[in-house]
Specification:
This protein starts with a strand and ends in a 9-residue tail after the last strand. A hairpin with an 8-residue loop joins strand 2 and strand 3. The chain is mainly beta. The chain has 4 helices and 19 strands.
């Protein structure tokens, strides 16, 4: 049951970080602002590393991807910027020379690319990128790019009908609060950095796990819907500095953030939750540039009363 919450003139909750992950499962890029497109933040999960059969590689099976640093031109996050012939996605990794991939690629379209439930065509970024990732991972690999103009990957209509994404796991945006991270770290022997959880939007100034309850928020005049608690896989257990997996935070999350704990009256699936998946209402419409910035206030417009009432 939704309860209306009046937006405060000066809310305490604000956007503290915005993170974009241009190549799925590689390192993120922290930016001061990010344009919103029909599929999420611009450039977010637009590239994907695939195996010889066209299947996606992620940190779940290739944790070395955590060590791949990604760089885009600073201007790429301006709302009206378009790449030129000298605009590059730059990749760096231990023991590897720098790889530069044109952001204005006119490469070959290949079929049979698949990730989770989706399969379709993608733009092959060429032999040099293929050799680079093949050498780095020690197995045949290719770098491909989502084709926005001709391919569509819909999110689960059970949670958000009509919305689309590129190569993100399930939804266009994932939001996490600093309060939630602080609360979890107080329980852990070794505190974890936010990069373990790979949010797009980090907010600060709210109570721990407040984001569980948010079903509608407003940031810089844009409406975001909280559509599903974010269930976590093994990726948060992977140290993003060395690619080595451990037991935490999954063991602690099972104690304090499992469906058994948070949603005891619901069907149990052995899941743990940390963060909230979002879609943006304005991503469905054409129009002037839509951007959110670090420092933007977050207005909570609607929320549920407990995590048990939230979609999951």
């Amino acid at each position: 049951m939704f309860g209306d919450v009046r937006a405060r003139t000066e809310p305490t909750t604000r956007v503290s970080s915005i993170l974009i992950y241009p190549v799925k499962s590689c390192r993120g890029v922290s930016v001061t602002q990010a344009p919103i497109t029909s599929t999420g933040f611009r450039w977010d999960r637009q590239w994907l590393v695939i195996n010889s059969k066209g299947r996606a590689y992620t940190q779940r099976v290739e944790p070395k991807l955590a060590l791949v640093e990604v760089q885009l031109p600073n201007a790429a996050f301006n709302g009206d910027w378009e790449p030129t012939n000298t605009s590059y996605l730059v990749l760096r990794a231990p023991g590897m020379s720098e790889l530069k991939v044109s952001m204005k690629s006119t490469g070959k379209v290949i079929d049979g690319v698949s990730m989770w439930e989706w399969s379709g065509s993608a733009l092959d970024e060429g032999a040099e990128a293929s050799e680079w990732f093949s050498n780095y991972l020690g197995k045949t690999s290719r770098l491909v790019r989502f084709i926005e103009g001709s391919e569509t990957r819909a999110v689960d209509p059970e949670y958000a009908c009509g919305y689309r994404t590129m190569f993100s796991d399930l939804f266009p945006f994932m939001l996490l609060s600093q309060g939630s991270l602080n609360a979890l770290n107080e329980l852990l022997k070794e505190p974890l950095p936010v990069n373990r959880f790979r949010p797009n939007i980090l907010v600060d100034g709210c109570e721990p796990y407040a984001e569980d309850l948010w079903t509608e928020i407003k940031i810089n005049g844009l409406i975001f819907y909280g559509v599903k608690l974010c269930s976590r896989c093994k990726v948060p257990t992977i140290n993003q500095e060395n690619g080595i997996a451990g037991n935490e935070p999954t063991e602690m999350l099972m104690k304090v953030r499992s469906d058994k704990v948070l949603r005891s009256n619901c069907k149990q699936g052995g899941k743990v939750y940390f963060g909230q998946n979002l879609v943006c209402k304005e991503s469905l419409t054409q129009g002037k540039s839509k951007v959110i910035k670090v420092g933007d206030p977050v207005y909570v417009l609607k929320k549920v009363s407990s995590a048990a009432e939230a979609a999951a």
